[in-house]
Amino acid sequence: MWAPEAGGVSITVKAASMATPKVAIIGAGLAGLCCARRLFQCGIPFEILEASDAVGGRVRTDRVDGFLLDRGFQIYLTAYPEGRRVLDLEALNLRYFSRGAKIWTGRRFEEVRDPREAPLTAMLSLFNQVGGVLDKFRIADLAWHLSRTPLLELWRQPERPTRDFLRWNARFSEKMIQRLFEPFFGGVFLERELVTSSRLFAYLFRMFAEGPGAVPAGGMQAIPEQIAAGLPARSIRFESRVVAIDGQELQLADGSTVSAPVIVIAVDGSEAARLAGSLLPELAWRGSTTVYYATEQAPMTEPILHLDGTGTGPVNSVVALSLAAPEYAPPGQTLLSAAVIGVPEEKDEELDRKIRAQFREWFGPSVANWRRLRIDRIRQALPDQSAGRLDPWQRPVRLRPGLYVCGDHRDQGSIDGAMTSGFRTAQTVMHDLAEFPAIVSGKQ
188-233 pLDDT, tens per residue? Predict the structure, then answer.
């Protein structure tokens, strides 16, 4: 009978274990890299097989005409606990966004600000059209309550749709939910109906309250690159796509094979389900679309999120990335990132026309001079985390003896969830290698 999975317990592996055959990790995304990092710390040999030409998985950055374009709008929350443990945040040269939002209410933008950053603006916002005065005090009360609750307890609270939690538990008005929470957390969850698990909402609300959002000066891909830099040289094989798993043998797209007594599947949920077959269920996804624009004259003066509080779209939010991180744009240029929830079926030109019409109302006629740089349509941006899908909030990572899986679809859909999953899987692998030598010998 197989023992329970190891959690956050430290496991020490004897030096002799370096003779253990390699662990084969499929995928050099955040989960796979963090799994490899933990194995390396404990002296377990490994090899990562990555289908693309670089690390990062869904966290990638491209340079286009002198601009840094992340593949989809992403930010890093500096309060992430696993990130604080794993990453050298100072070395990432993080560039920070303003803590708050400007919300389009149909005629003008109204501000909601963190009083710790802008106390006067926060006080004036008590009387704006985003919600009632009580709603503003309830935001502070919710932040205080969640900050005093241990993180593990947040994941064990009764689970319900986020909208129900906001309405019945946190007692926010419908106006506040529609104007603030729908666009803000709708952009995080990639769905404005707010059917996502209240457990994830509570966790992320606390993360936003405890630290600002940021991007590395070199783009979001700097995060996985930093983790990879701490691994042994030549431990990652690029352009090595695994097409099938047969027992403990990996079949690659070029016709070659790799055998390993321990295999870790660290790819996205759908690809993981394909490789694992009946051992993993098919994954449902939420999609997103990001449209990048360049302009010589920024329509805003600070790196604060501008949200659509009317729900008329198509853009849910827009932010001037280069006002937070000047490195994202050439001198004299501003990089704007417009986020659309879901993946519209319109052609690029039609979507661009609709977005400019929306922004013309927000920012005026200068929108016509913006230069479109790229449209990223990402159908598999986040796993569906509707209420019920995070119960339990951490799913098993051992599929069978010698075969494991990690990724944000095993924990929760965030950078921190992917990193935690990688660590948790490595702990389980080491536990099994120590307790069940048959795995090492390949005779399981």
Answer: 999 999 999 999 999 999 999 999 999 999 999 999 999 999 999 9
Q: How many Å apart are CA 270 and CA 96, to the nearest integer?
A: 33
DSSP state of 113: E
Instruction: Record the tokens describing residue 299, joined without a space.
Output: 């329509």
* CA 175 – CA 179 distance, rounded (Å): 6
CA proximity to 354, closest of 342, 367, 366, 336:
367
What residue type is 398 in one-letter code? R
- Structural domains in the chain plus CATH codes: 15-58+221-284+395-441 (3.50.50.60), 68-96+214-219+285-383 (3.90.660.20), 100-210 (no CATH)
Instruction: Please report which helix (H) or strand (E) contains residue 140, including its range.
Output: helix 133-147
As a whole number, the mean pLDDT across the chain is 91
- Percent of the chain whose predicted confidence (pLDDT) is above 90: 85
Query: DSSP letter at 297?
Result: S
Pair type for strands 262-265 and 403-405: parallel
Closest C-alpha to 220, from 59, 337, 356, 90: 59
The dihedral region occupied by 128, where left means phi > 0, alpha psi between -120 and 50, and beta the remainder, is: beta
> Which amino acid is residue 352, in one-letter code?
D
> 151: how many CB neighbours lie within 10 A of its CB?
12
Name the strand (E) or helix (H) holding 40: helix 30-41
The tally of CA atoms less than 13 A away on the side-chain side of residue 193 is: 10
Q: What are the start-end ranges of the H helices in 174-276?
A: 174-176, 182-189, 198-210, 222-229, 269-276
270-279 pLDDT per residue, tens: 999 999 999 9
Q: Any idea what the Cα angle at residue 279 is, between residues 276 and 283, rounded to 5°?
A: 75
- pTM for the model: 0.93
C-alpha closest to that of 274 among 248, 237, 246, 243: 243
Q: Among all chains, which residue has been given the structure tokens 């999953």?
A: 421
In this structure, of 113-122, 144-153, 190-199, 257-266, the range with the lowest mean pLDDT score is 113-122
Terminal Cα distance for the chain, rounded: 12
Pair 214, 74: CB distance under 8 Å: no
By C-alpha distance, which of 124, 142, 325 is closest to 220? 325
> Under 8 Å CB-to-CB from 81, ≥6 apart: which residues?
151, 416
* Preceding amide of 330 cis, omega within 30: no
In which element (H, E) is residue 249 found? Answer: strand 249-252
**What sign does the dihedral 128-132-134-137 (CA atoms) show?**
negative
In 351-394, at which residue ranges do the beta strands (DSSP E only) sit? 371-383
Tokens 């047969």 belong to 246
